Amino acid sequence: MCFLLPVASSNPIFGPRQVTGLLGGSVTVKCYYPRTSVNRHDRKYWCKESRSQCVTVISSSGYTAQDFSGRATITDFPEQGIFTIEISKLVEKDTSFYKCGIGLNDRGLSFKCPCCVKCKN
Q: What residues does the Immunoglobulin V-set domain cover (predicted)?
């Protein structure tokens, strides 16, 4: 089961508070951003936080990390100011903290999710 709870924030980008999925299942995450002409055309991304950096999982520029190849998609809806990330075939190592953003990782606008993808049996 997947729970997506948008978080209103003073941050120009925001997303879900918690994302939960079943092992082998899928989750869909919505990230909201200001509808400006710059944001409309800039790179959107979903990254997995590590100790030193946020490592890109998938981006709208066509990149998908090897661990997520064939099971992650990103779709931008610029007229609505939303992009979605879908991750399927969830595995335990997907449990982590993530960030959605626009531009370059850790340099553009981003939302550090106070959430995890939690994979349960």
A: 15-106
